[in-house]
Amino acid sequence: MANLRGNLFRYGIFATGIGFILAVLGFAYAYFTVSIPDANSFVNSQSTIIQYADGQEIGRLGSENRTVVKLANIPLHVRQAVMAAEDRNFYTQSAVSPVGIARALFNNLKSGTLNGQGGSTITQQYAKTAFLTPERTITRKVKELIIAIKLQNQMSKDDILESYLNTIYFGRGSYGIQTASEVYFGKSVSNLSVSQAAILASILRSPGYYDPSYSKENATRLEARWKYVIDGMIAKEWLTKTDAAKLTYPVTRDRVTSGALAGPKGYVISWVVHELAKLGFSEAQLQTGGYVIKTTLEKKNQVAAVRAMDGRGPKNAPESFHAALVSIRPGTGEIVALYGGKDYLVTQLNGATQSITQAGSGFKPFAIIAALEQGIPLTSIWNGESPQVFDDVGKPYPVFNYGNEQEGEIDLLAATAHSINTIFVPLGIKAGLDNVVDVARRAGIPSTVALMPTPSISLGVASPHVIDMASAYATFAANGTYATPFIIKEVLGANKGVLYEGKIKAQQAFQPDVMADLTYALEQVTQYGTGGAAASGVGRPIAGKTGTTTDNASAWFNGYTVEFATTVAMFRDDATQSLNGIGGNYAFTGGTFPAQVWNTYTKIAQKGMPATSFPEPANIGGTEPISYLDAVPTLDPELAGKYESGATKKKKLAAKQ
């Protein structure tokens, strides 16, 4: 046993020695084979190109917003602030910090990933920024170390610091300390105060994480890091405690976007950047990485969206007015058109993907599906009188039809065409309010949108994004197949290698026969009901649903052909403000401007495409009329009159068309 332990010990020493020798030889080979490229050629040729699905260019990221300055023209306190933030011993330590590398290695092993934590000196950061791609691999890290060592042997510390300060990315499209000074403070680097220098030194670590213009959380993080930088300057005796106590926290300028993002295109590019961030591509990487981003957007569809909004949307709308459109290919989830607003330079809030507003009667199909799944047919007969009062957990819930319209006894098919509120509330109750919520989730309304199983759920009191509703109606158009919406089709690296490839993520959410009956019902909306404006001259089968909320505060048209599902929504900043009167229409409903925009978009986008028919209705539950007049009990009708006076009258659901 003793001999065995001894042999194992000797073998261990031998193996360790062999491993060490191989590592040294490998590093030596890499040292003599890795050269320092030309920094200027890298910096000036790494714009990221964003393309349509067919390869035509949408726009670019990473224009050379850079002004090179000599180190002598960069104040000493600016240099010291950067060193306090990134490498306090820059002038005294080696280009590579063994302690920093050990710490980074420990953190990486602890997390189980190569996450790039810590370990980088200013020289290493310059090597990575100016000469290498941002990939996180062992090979890239070794190259970074070798280039850093070679830079130290070939350049003075002052030269390295000067190059670093002219190369590093500060966010907002700015490279180098001079441009960052202008972008964040509107002044030359030579005029920066100590406080302002500490702000820029804090931001460069991760602009998307610290730039205060993005979020309140960023502002809080930036202030904490600013204090860290100031404390570092005190610790290195570059700043006295007395002078530090006199400093005031500076205010940065508002973020102004590049002219390349002007108009509707800016919303497309910003959303692409947003989605790429979720895939691990940072803003700094996109600004310098030389990527080619191929999207799912079809140029014909995108042009159609802009033309439709410009041509059929309301004129002279107030600044508080917003219009958005999302079009999705059913069954795949590919976003083929996205209109987030008129001008990204005016407001950066994307109306298609970020804004929320009440959905109105666009939610009624969820109640229809829940009913069909319970065997309740389109031929079921309901009471369409208005008003009616229902029980909402012990409280009276009055429901009115649009204009207090009286329909009497009609079937669900006709109730859908004319959007009868007093039928859809009991329909949802009878089908099961939890079932209505479940249907909405399966269709594509994400968990981030609050849905409550109350009687009002069928009338669309929830506030989804435009993309959420487009996704749900795409599920209907795909005969019940839900596909996660996506816009990034492919990401190519600077060497044209594929770094990411988008994949269709689809699953069957509903039975095709249920979807066939739903589509048949929604066809009635465009042929005989509230969505007639959407069908004019389209020349192909369409199905859809209008949606208008209380007091006409938001208006929708959600519709689809076999090929595309498209949602158009219009709303104001203040959800309590009515759209009435905008564009000359007194009653601004989903059947007016939203349906008109949808109509023009579809005609342009599908011009030249053959007309494709929807499946025939399955007639779930039979074709004979079945009475549901007493399916859900109502409260004393006289109670309704009490809700027609005063402030409560304004809250009635008469406008939910």
Automatic annotation (TrEMBL):
One GO MF term? penicillin binding
Q: Which UniProt keywords apply?
A: Carboxypeptidase, Cell shape, Cell wall biogenesis/degradation, Glycosyltransferase, Hydrolase, Membrane, Multifunctional enzyme, Peptidoglycan synthesis, Protease, Transferase, Transmembrane, Transmembrane helix
Catalytic activity, reaction form: [GlcNAc-(1->4)-Mur2Ac(oyl-L-Ala-gamma-D-Glu-L-Lys-D-Ala-D-Ala)](n)-di-trans,octa-cis-undecaprenyl diphosphate + beta-D-GlcNAc-(1->4)-Mur2Ac(oyl-L-Ala-gamma-D-Glu-L-Lys-D-Ala-D-Ala)-di-trans,octa-cis-undecaprenyl diphosphate = [GlcNAc-(1->4)-Mur2Ac(oyl-L-Ala-gamma-D-Glu-L-Lys-D-Ala-D-Ala)](n+1)-di-trans,octa-cis-undecaprenyl diphosphate + di-trans,octa-cis-undecaprenyl diphosphate + H(+)
What Pfam family does this protein match (any one)? Transgly
Q: Which SUPFAM superfamilies match?
A: beta-lactamase/transpeptidase-like, Lysozyme-like
Q: Which residues form the Glycosyl transferase family domain?
A: 55-233
Instruction: Report the residue ranges that make up the Penicillin-binding protein transpeptidase domain in this protein.
Output: 326-561
Q: Which GO terms describe its biological process?
A: cell wall organization; peptidoglycan biosynthetic process; proteolysis; regulation of cell shape
What would be one Gene Ontology cellular-component term for the protein?
outer membrane-bounded periplasmic space
Please state the Enzyme Commission number of this protein: 2.4.99.28
Q: Name the residues that span the membrane.
A: 12-32
Q: What is this protein called?
A: peptidoglycan glycosyltransferase
Organism, by scientific name, is: freshwater metagenome
